[in-house]
Amino acid sequence: MRIGRVFLTTVRVGGTFSASRYHSFPPRPIAPAAKFVVRRCNLSVSIRSSSMAVPAGVLVNWDLTKCTPSQLEEDTVKLLAELQQRIDNIGAIPLQQATYHNVVQPLDALNRDLRTNGAILDMPQHCVEDKLVRDASSKAEEKMEEFDVAVNMRADVFERILHVQETGMDELGAEQKRFVNKLIVKGKRYGLHLSSDVQKQIKELKTKESKLAIKFSSNLNEDDTKLYFTKEQLVGLPHDIMNELSVGSDGKLEVTIKYNHLFPVMKNCTNPETRKAMVTAANRKCMKENTPILEELIELRHLLATILCFPTHAAFILDDRMAKTPDTVATFLTDLQGKLGELVEQEKAVMLAYKEEECKESGLECNGELDLWDMRYYMDMVEKKKYAVDHNVLREYFPMPRVLTGMFDVYQQLLSVKFDKVDNPPVWHKDVLMYKVNDTDSGELMGYFFLDLHPRAGKYSHAAVFGLQQHCKLEDASTQVAVCAMLCNFSMPTADKPALLEHSEVETLFHEFGHVMHHICSRAEVALFSGTSVSRDFIEAPSQMLENWVWEKEPLALMSEHYKSKEPIPDELLLKLAASRAANAGMVNMRQVALSSFDQAIHTQQSADTASEYARIHKQITGFAAIPDTNMPASFGHLGGGYDAQYYGYLWSEVFSMDMFETRFSGKVMDGKVGREYRDIILARGNSIDAKDILVQFLGREPNNKAFLRSKGLKC
């Protein structure tokens, strides 16, 4: 993940028997034997009258325009009552009669129905304009997460899974055996092998943790911070962005700290005081509300880890990840920090020289150092001066309609899939698009995806993919197709101009769509292993690998044209863009090291003063002092969204993504044969096989970090 795309994907931590429904990961499990199948609850939210037909294979109606708070409340009660009865039935099966088919598969069905029907109850908080509906949706999520915890803590159900492991494994296939074994491991991570008193304590703590994490994320979604500037204070901002700003009562222009305003101001505005005001506001976002929540979460997580006999929360989390231990992560980050150090100093020297020159020309006093609000501005200047890449010129070649069409062309050719727009789709907002996906060769229906691309009040404020319905193989050999939604916040089109994307935004779009394809292309038979349910420190690798396409000439030609003249990007500009890829690599990646190190630090402690800890680590690693009276971690959504002690995974995954790209795709980025192998081995397998094993199969050898280091401009 590159600077400027701070929040690419968010998740809530999944459970043991009941895997979390929240966002993209992990997917919903498969259906059980026929007598347990209840594939769709008759929820009023999803079956109300609508002029929009629900496409074949989609289990709920996503037209939320008439959704009401009372519907959400009633449907949550109804859904959980039904599922409670089903989990009680599983727990009542005589122990000696417990089998995969009457215990494990029914658990899958319960998971699937909780997640499919639950998605329509908790999704509105991220996408519906009515605040009362968003609040009701958030409360629905709290109740469902509480139910999740309760199901995960069912010792009677765990005992029956143990019986299946001990007596019924011989008749199972490899994937089914893996599923049973994973459930046992997860059960122990919930303390189900400990005393009933300890289990009660764990249940209380996990319920509290879940509620705090939901509140942390909800506060970020609801933030509506606005600043007001004169046109003179915004000099340098592109005209189309300036023109879309609302005018306040005093005649000043209204600027939010959402990405579609924040980044253009930080990169383009020549007034350092304006940039300082913006970055200060951004780093104070939800500080009052979320700082105490985050610090309580840190204490709760540590206590839970120690109860489960782990020294720290990081040790608990990493025990179930590729990295395995905090020491491994610390070594990885420290080694990368050391390798980046010299490069960072060289980059800073160039930027400081630019700052001194600009201050002299404009008559401003120069303090002789780079400030936090200087970073994006002078990084952009490096690309303009050193690489002759002007992103304000370049964005004119990336109108949203053309980018989408070209991106679809790339993915269709590469992965042997076909996209068709759904007419009059059931959607939650008029701007949302829906597409059907079929396999090119067989014509098989693979799933659907929604695109919700532009900002609006109360909408999820970053970029992420939300899993709404997971691919799964049913007991009758039929298939439940995948459905997911991509939410982003790209600038709106205007009356005389389409939405224009910066190249970094094209990269974001390509990355997130990679997660969409990971969902859609899943072919794991056990749906708990479907698509993006892979280890959290591998989860970003497939999408990161696909980011490389936005730096290659052939895909760029498909995704670009001047919004007025329809001319392609000149070859000269493409060459300059490609040459600029390593620009600022030191500072970009050192910031990621700092954020990852902070995440590890607070989750290897019993408690933390997050503002002072962040200021210390950020200064130590990046050299930039935090702004007084701010606390960036209060708006660091990953910490409450399922990436706790796992933010390092963005850099860790990049080791694999660059190895895959350089080894298999370098020089043949539109090779459909290799692309199909990528789909069948990396995307389709999900978590049915260990990530390390599918990497070895795709690469033909053990993975290494050579391509990763080269991509950062570092020696191997």
TrEMBL record:
Keywords of the record: Hydrolase, Metal-binding, Metalloprotease, Protease, Zinc
Needed co-factor(s): Zn(2+)
Family matches, as Pfam families: Peptidase_M3
GO cellular component: mitochondrial intermembrane space
GO biological process: peptide metabolic process; proteolysis
CDD domains attached to this UniProt entry: M3A_TOP
Gene3D superfamilies membership: Collagenase (Catalytic Domain), Endopeptidase. Chain P, domain 1, Neurolysin, domain 3
GO-annotated molecular function: metal ion binding; metalloendopeptidase activity
PANTHER family: PROTEASE M3 THIMET OLIGOPEPTIDASE-RELATED, SACCHAROLYSIN
This protein's name: Thimet oligopeptidase-like isoform X1
